[in-house]
Every structure is written in structure tokens, then in C-alpha cells.
Amino acid sequence: MEQNIPYKIYLEEQEMPKQWYNVRADMKKKPAPILDPETLKPVTLEELSGIFCTELAKQELDDTTPYFDIPEEIQNFYKMYRPSPLVRAYCLEKKLDTPAHIYYKFEGNNTSGSHKLNSAIAQAYYAKQQGLKGVTTETGAGQWGTALSMACAYLDLDCQVYMVKCSYEQKPFRREVMRTYGAKVTPSPSMNTKIGQKINEQFPGTTGSLGCAISEAVEAAVTQYGYRYVLGSVLSQVLLHQSVIGLEAKTALDKYGIKADTIIGCAGGGSNLGGLISPFAGEILRGEANYDIIAVEPSSCPSLTRGVYAYDFCDTGKVCPLAKMYTLGSGFIPSANHAGGLRYHGMSSVVSELYDQGILTARSAEQTAVFQAAQIFAKVEGILPAPESSHAIKVAMDEAIKCKETGEAKNIVFGLTGTGYFDMVAYQKFNDGQMSDYVPTDEELAKALGELPKVEV
Ligand SMILES: *Cc1c(COP(=O)(O)O)cnc(C)c1O
Predict the structure, then answer these.
(1) Confidence class of residue 92 from pLDDT cuts 50, 70 and 90?
(2) Residues within 6 Å of ligand 1 by CB
(3) Nearest residue to 298 (alpha-carbon basis) of 196, 386, 206, 392
(4) What is the distance in A from the centroid of ligand 1 to the CA of 73?
(5) What's the mean pLDDT in 53-63?
(6) pLDDT (tens digit, 9 = 90+) per residue, 394-440?
(7) Weakest mean pLDDT among 7-16, 109-118, 144-153
(8) What is the pLDDT averaged over residues 212-217?
(9) Nearest-CA residue for atom 10 of ligand 1
């Protein structure tokens, strides 16, 4: 007999987490330390505090403290759009005719439209606490910039966003949302920074890349008094903040006596995946439970499935610390026809290390199949998903279809990270039948991988 499980498993406000969980504390083998790009020595708190707010730099370097209190002001901000619902996808199950039970944790229920606000408010909060004037950042598709501009508006902080030029031009509405919240948005590469000038000179007419926008934003932070740089993914501090997703999901599942079998997340820089899986991975690491955890990335930017585990630059300009991660090389730029987001060349060092230890597996998906899954999901579940999130939908559907063959009633949980209203150019391509799949050849991958920094470890 199946229990009577509602469509939406809400938590009460008082059931929301009051602490973030740092999965590194439960890892016997820790992620490798980040290194100074010049000396190749582990970065100290003092050095890191020149780029990040001091409190965030502390979080970045702390791999032993399991729980961090969520400051009350952040808890209150979270209450405006959290707890986020865990939804039983009854209609999708019916559509797929599967015995599996599918659940998704929906993070798109705020104006920025994604999970990124969970970390944006935390980072803005610590900047404010430190008495800073403002923060600088980069944004690719625009979700992070939007989230950060909302958080900065709330706390009355200045927000400067370097937006990858092709997105700046293709996504004018994202740009205008940021400006409405008071952010200053500059197309990158710009002529405002030395690195931007250099890149423009080297590659005239370039439409930019995330790695390049990062370099610009870092330069802007360190050259203006009272500013620090913030980043929306990849970093361990971001995974820490995003653990709110996994903690809520776990509390909700426990509340209804549901044990997840399979947990699936899309992976760009690894922040939503890392946040969703953290408490579950912690149980695996402590030997308390087992889960089948799957990261899904695009076939056109396959850092986990085809990259190497090595120290690499986090940005094109090579100003940021080096991180050991699964990477395609900081010079890797996904094919121009790739429309589905998740285009960063590397992967969070925490997710990379968990993957290396076999705590999670990874798969890649081609974009046409991802959009097909997105369309089915939109039709039956009502939510128009972000292309990024749809990578997780695709694999959740694959897994549910497998259950049909084996007759297993597995509990599949996936992260639905956001909505796709600003991705209509990509959907238009799909609807017009103009979307193609591009999978880089081994030779193409070898090129950027050949330029990895040489680090003795
Ligand atoms: C940014 C983003 C992602 C990918 O980033 P991660 O750090 O890998 O989570 C996924 N989905 C949405 C909706 C996003 O905005």
C-alpha cells in the first residue's frame, strides 16, 4: 500500500535549517588546497581576504567544521522564498508509466529564478557585515548576476556585474532585471580593466567567456577601495550555503518516511549538486547510508566525464588561485551552438574529490535530448524548466524508465534548479528544429588540456 503523499511536501518555517552543513568535515581525504597562482603554495587566509570578505575566506578554507550557523538576517531573507517545495512528480510518473517515485526539489520560486539566491544573500550579508561598499562579480547566462543584484539591493550594497558579452547582447531582459535592482552591468571583455583590454586586443571582436569575465571582476574588486569579489558557483563556500537545499530535502523526506535511492543533479560548477547531495554524501562518508548519486553535465562541456583531475586556473586571466578539480582546461570554450548553460571548464573541488572517491557517478547528456526532456516535463508538471535543470530531468526520466523495465519502485530525487523564462532563444532553436548536438573530439579536448599548469603535488 502506498502512503498518501501529497504533491508538495512543504516544511514549516520552523523546520528550516538553522545551520549550513560543510561536507568537507566528514571527508577523510579532503579536497586539495587552493594554491597561489604565482608561488604555488597553499593560499593563506590573509591572502584570500584580499579577494573575498574575511568571513567567506574563512569558510572557504575550513574543511573541518561540520556546521556553520546561518545568521538570523539570512534566515529571515530565506523565509521570503523558502522552504522550497519538494514535489512528487505524479504526472511525470504517469506519463512515463513507471513504478518509480519521482521527487524534485524546486529552487526556481524566486525572482532570480534559480538556487543562486541562496548563496548570493549569504555573500552579500558578509560583505555588509565587514563594512564594504560593494561587490564585483561575473555572470554568464545571467542567473547569478540577477541573484546577487537582488541580494545587494536588499542590503543596500553596490553591485558591479561583468556579463559575458554574448549573453549581454542575447539576454537583454536579464540585464534589465539586474539594472532594475540597481546593479551596474558591463559587457565583458570590457575596456574598464587591464585584463579586459588585453583580451580585446588579443581576440578582437570576441564575445567573451566566463573565465574572462571572472578575471575582469577580480581585477575590479582588488583595484577599488571597499570592494570584494564574489562568485556564484565552484567555490567551497558556495556549496556550504547551497547545503540548505539538501538539508531541507532530507528533513522533508525524513518527515514522510521516504528513503531516497537515487539523487540526481545537474552540474556546471557543482554548487546546486554539491548543496543537494551534501547531507546525503555525509551519511555515505560516515557509513550510515547508501545512495546512488548522479551528476549530469552537457556532452559539449564534459568536465567530469572527459576531463582530467588536476590543478588548473579558475579563470582565463590566471589571476585566481589554482584549484585541483576535474577540468577541461581553462582555455576550453564550449561550441557556439551550445545553448544549455553549464559551460564552466572546471568543477567544484569538493564535488571533484567526492567523484574521485566514488561517492557519486557522472553522466553527460546531449542538448537536444535535454530539451526533449524539458518539454515533456513542462507539459506534464507545468513548470518551464531552465535548460541547466533539464539535464537532471533527462537523467531522472532515464532512471525512471529503467525502473519500468526492472519493476523497481525506486525513490528518485532530483534538483530542479530553476525556471527557463529567460532561455527562450534556446527553446526557440529547439522548437524550430534548429538545435544540434556538438560533442568535442578528443583532439579538441587535448588542446586545452595541453595547457594545464604544471604543479607538483
Ligand atoms: C547556475 C545554474 C546552474 C549551474 O550551476 P551549479 O553551480 O552547477 O549549480 C544550474 N541551474 C541553474 C538554473 C542555474 O542558474
Answers:
(1) very high
(2) 114, 116, 143, 233, 266-273, 342, 386, 388-389, 417-418
(3) 392
(4) 24
(5) 97
(6) 999 999 999 999 999 999 999 999 999 989 999 999 999 999 999 99
(7) 7-16
(8) 91
(9) 388
| pLDDT tens by residue, 300-340 | 999 999 999 999 998 877 888 999 999 999 888 888 778 77
Ligand 1 atom 7 nearest Cα: 271
C-alpha–C-alpha distance, residues 203 and 201, integer Å: 6
Query: b/e string for 425-435 if b means 16 or more Cβ within 10 A?
Result: ebbebbeeeeb
Atom of ligand 1 nearest to the CA of 238: 7
Look at residues 287, 295, 312 and name the one whose alpha carbon lies nearest to residue 239. 295
Pocket test for ligand 1, best of 137, 272, 419 (most atoms within 8 A of CB): 272
pTM of the model: 0.97
Site to substitute for ligand 1 among 106, 116, 351, most atoms within 8 A of C-beta: 116
Which pLDDT value is given to residue 61?
Answer: 98
Q: Residue 241: its pLDDT value, please?
A: 98
The rounded Cα 158 to chain-centroid distance in angstroms is: 23
8-21 average pLDDT score: 95
As to burial, measured by CB atoms within 10 angstroms (0-12 exposed, 13-18 middle, 19+ buried), residue 100 is buried
